[in-house]
Amino acid sequence: MAPITEVEGRRIALSNLDKVLYPATGFTKGELLHYYATTAGVLLAHLYNRPVSFLRFPDGVDGEPFFAKNVPPGTPSWVKTAEVPRSDGPARQILVQDLPTLMWAANLVTEFHTPQWQADSPGMADRLVFDLDPGAPADVVACCEVALWLRERLAADELHARVKTSGSKGLHLLVPLVPTPSERVSAYAKELARQAEADRPDLVVHRMTRSLRPGKVFVDHSQNSAKKTTAAPYTVRARTEPTVSTPVTWEEVERCEHARDLVFLAGDIAGRLARYGDLMGPLINLNRAGRLPS
C-alpha cells in the first residue's frame, strides 16, 4: 500500500518512491517528486488557470509514454477541472492550481503541457510560441542562431521574447500577449517563420515536411493553434536524463557553442532560480504583454 502524505491538508498516496525512472542516471520517482515540490513556486505560476495535458511515463523513460488530456479515473474530488472546447464536443481537463494537485499529478509521473490560452478564455492566446526543432546534424547551437534572428524580428514589432530550452533538442521562444484570437496569433507566427526561411534558407525551414529538415532548424509555429500545447516551463521531460524545460538568458543563447551548454537537469534548477529568479516571469505579468501589429 502506498504511503499517505499530507500536503496542505490534502491526503495523497505517493507510490513507488524508489522506482528508477531514468536508468541512465538512476534518477528515481522520489527524486522527481522532490524536484516538483521544491520548484512548485515557479511551476505553479505557469500552470495556473491553464488546462493541463499530461505526457505520462509511469514505467520510466524506457517504457511506453502516453499523452492524456481527459480527467483520469480516480482523480480526487478536490482537484479542480475546467471545461474545454474540442471538435467532438466539450470535455474536462485538470487545472493544477495548488501544491496538493501538483504533487498528485506528479505522482502519476508526468510532463506538464499547456495551451497558449487560459481556462476562462479558451482560444484567446495570451502568449505566442515558436518551437525551434533541429534536424540532425543541426543541434541547439543552430537553434540559438535562429532564436536570435526571431528575437530581433519580434522586437521590430515591439514584441519581447523570452527563451527556454525545450528540455529535448531545441528551444522555445515565448512572447507575452494581450489576449488575442489564436487564429490571428497563428497567422502572424506562420508569417514570421516564413520570413525566417526566406532570409536564411540555409538554416531554417518553416514547413513540417521531414525530408526538408536534415541540417536545418524547423521553426514550428503550429503550437499557436488553440488545439495545441507546449511543454510548460520547468517541467521535467521524458528523455534519457531528467532534463528540464529551462528558462535561459539571452546571453546564454548568444554564447552557446556546444549542445551540452544548454542542457539542464532537475538538480540544476534550484541554483538557477537562486541566481536568476524566474526568467519567464514576464509571461505572467500583464504589464509586459505586447500587441500584434495591425
From TrEMBL:
Molecular-function GO term, any one: DNA ligase (ATP) activity
Ligase in keyword set: yes
InterPro entries: LigD_pol_dom, MtLigD_Pol-like, NHEJ_LigD
Enzyme class, UniProt record, top EC level: ligase
Domain DNA ligase D polymerase: from-to ranges: 28-279
Annotated EC: 6.5.1.1
The UniProt record lists the keyword Lipid biosynthesis: no
Gene3D superfamilies: DNA primase, PRIM domain
UniProt KW keywords: Ligase
Protein name: Non-homologous end-joining DNA ligase
